[in-house]
Each structure stands twice: as C-alpha cells, then as structure tokens.
Specification:
Elements: E1 4-6, H1 8-16, H2 22-27, E2 30-33, H3 34-40, H4 47-54, E3 60-63, H5 80-92, E4 96-98, H6 102-110, E5 115-116, H7 118-127, H8 133-141
Parallel strand pairs: 1-4, 2-3, 4-5
Helix pairs in contact: 3-5
Amino acid sequence: MRAVIADTGPVHYLVLIGHIDILPVLFGKVIIPLVVCDELQQAQTPDAVRRWIDSPPPWLEIRTPPHNAWHDESLESLDAGERAALELAAELAADLILMDDREGVRFARGKGFRVIGTLRVLSLGARRGLLDRADSFERIKRTNFRYR
C-alpha cells in the first residue's frame, strides 16, 4: 500500500479551487497528521475548507505522529503542520509527501522523500483527464497561493 502524507497547503488549496477529489483518484488514501487537521479548522481558514475538514471523506486518514520522531534542529524553522507531516512520513516510510513550503520540501528531499506540491498535483490531474489545467491554474491564481 502506498503511504501518501499531506501537509496543510495542498489540501487547503485543492478544496478552495474545487479539485480536492482528484487526490483519491491519483493516490488512493491520503494521510494527514492531526496537527494539519487542526490547521485546516482554524478560525482564519476559509469557510469552505473548514466545512470540508469537519466531515472528512473516507479516503482521508487523520493520524497523530510520534512526538519528536526526529531530533533535528533544522525542523524547528518549519511550522507545526510541516513538522508533523515529516514526522509521520518518517514513521510510515511514506512513498510521497504533498507539500508546498520550500524549506519543508528541501528538508524532506534531503531525507530521501519524494515530494510534490499543489501545482504538480494539478498537472498530474490534468494529464489523467481529471481537470482542465489552464482553468485550475486560473482558479488558484485567484487565491492567496504563492508560486514562482
């Protein structure tokens, strides 16, 4: 079984642009740490995202990662969701991490993990005929998503 771990960003933005349902088609089950679930429920999070995580779909698994699985000081610069996603990925020997934060991605790749971000997920979905790439990119541009 593939272990796919997601950080907050990809879930947040895929919900916002109406393409969260491509995740189970592309990856089957997706696992998020409890901390990511909490971040998706914060008061400043858009209503659509909070409503979605209030009733998570069956393909989304929420887990509590081990506390401080890595004693690596470089993790301290990451936010709680990124740290938890990386710790859970280590515990489960994840096949893939969904993450957008550059520093988190750099750390994960340095530990040997395969990492893709929201834009790559959208590209994969477009290649599989699950969405229109240009439309998806236009939708994400209307959010506060940051990209190069």
